[in-house]
Amino acid sequence: MSTHAPLQIIVDSLAADIGRDVAIDDRQIRWLVHSPHASPPDPARMRSILTRRISEEALQWARAFGIEEADGPVRLPPNPDIGAEARVCIPLRTRGVLLGFMFIVDPDQTLDGEPLARAEDAAQEAAHVLYRERRLRELERERERWLLTHLFGDDPEEAARALNDEGFLEAGRVAVLAVRADAEPSRSELAIGAALERLRRMVPQRRGLEHRQADHGAFLVALDDPAATSPRELAERLLEFADEEGAAGVTRVGIGGAQPLAGARRSHRQACDAVGVAARVPRFGRVAAWDELGVYRTLSRFPDELDDDALHPGLVELLRDHDALVETLEAYLDRAGDAKATAEALSLHRATLYYRLQRIEEITGARLKVGEDRLALHLGLHLARLRGQPPKSTAAG
After folding, report:
1. Which of 144, 200, 307, 350 gets the highest tally of CB atoms within 10 A of its CB?
2. CA-to-CA distance for 344 and 312, rounded, in angstroms?
3. Integer Cα distance of 71 and 92 in angstroms
4. CA of 300: how far to CAs of 214, 337, 390, in Å?
5. What is the 3-state secondary structure (H, E, C) of the chain?
6. Cα Rg of the chain, angstroms
7. pLDDT at 4 over 70
8. How far apart are CA 80 and CA 89, in angstroms?
9. Pairing of strands 217-222, 287-289
């Protein structure tokens, strides 16, 4: 059944009662529900049903009759230019809040008297339904925000379970996008919030959540569906939306690495660090992914957090249980890649040295002939020493 089942019942009943097509749209005149059509709908309504949105021309035409300010029915004459037959529009308003519109197709412009009064009663009932739905959504969003605060904070395990169990999200693994403008946060807060809302609407239900903090916005996206839009594509769309919404300054997006849902805090931190790198290193442009930062993963956190996250991921693997290879790598890098000097320092045959270097590349995924890879490994070794994790033995130095 439709998520707007009570509204559907209202329009179906009214349409049968007054013998006319009835539809309910939201405040932006985007279709929510419509009655069965006794005859084919006019082109304007058909477009709104198929696209779930009204054309800009039709939107301005409807607004020109003062429907947003009216307290009662407004008659809209036929408009052949947009393919619209005559209509009666009844604003759906309760407690002073405009919640949407009821449109009744009235081609012969005879809806009046008792039928119109019944339509007004139905519109008031629909307004109450929309108000209750709105309050329920507000309560759900408050709960969602509370859970996301704890997911990114100090109670991630419980928050992750609640997000799944209470139907807010369906996700095993997730990534976080962080969006930030380089202007004063208060100048871009509304624009970034609107951009996050638009991004959420384009992601399938329960596959993405947005969270707003004092200086940035975050978007949590599920990664379990390989056919879903990639985090980078979502980041690009988020930038487009932020620009269209008028965010002040230059807006950038950071993409955190994939994590289990309970580890979203880590991806969130990575995304925030990636935004910081993008703001300082022009070559990353306006979108920076944590997994593509290379040595800047390390530099973004030095010297505050010398954890595994700050090191080249291949080096972390090497440091776990390959002491001889770590010793070889450090000696080789300390000697600027001079194989002869390294072999002599370690008392190795040259062939043994080359074999070890090949194994280092296989384990780390790095290429020792690439300057940035050498820099990431070399700096990572020094950071490992700073945090008390040097190789158990080394001849380098």
Report:
1. 144
2. 27
3. 9
4. 21, 26, 21
5. CCCCHHHHHHHHHHHHHHCCCEEEECCCCCEEEECCCCCCCCHHHHHHHHHCCCCHHHHHHHHCCCCCCCCCCEEECCECCCCECCEEEEEEEECCEEEEEEEEECCCCCCCHHHHHHHHHHHHHHHHHHHHHHHHHHHHHHHHHHHHHHHCCCCHHHHHHHHHHCCCCCCCEEEEEEEEECCCHHHHHHHHHHHHHHHHHHCCCCCEEEEECCCCEEEEEECCCCCCCCHHHHHHHHHHHHHHCCCCCCEEEEECCCEEHHHHHHHHHHHHHHHHHHHHCHHHCCEEEHHHCCCHHHHCCCCCCCCHHHCCHHHHHHHHHCHHHHHHHHHHHHCCCCHHHHHHHHCCCHHHHHHHHHHHHHHHCCCCCCHHHHHHHHHHHHHHHHCCCCCCCCCCC
6. 30
7. yes
8. 18
9. unpaired
Q: Summarize pLDDT for 214-246 with one digit per residue, the tens.
A: 789 999 999 988 888 999 999 999 999 999 988
Contact in structure between 242 and 152 (CB atoms under 8 Å): no
| CB-based contact 329:312 (threshold 8 Å) | no
Nearest by Cα to 91 from 68, 114, 58, 109: 68
pTM as predicted: 0.62
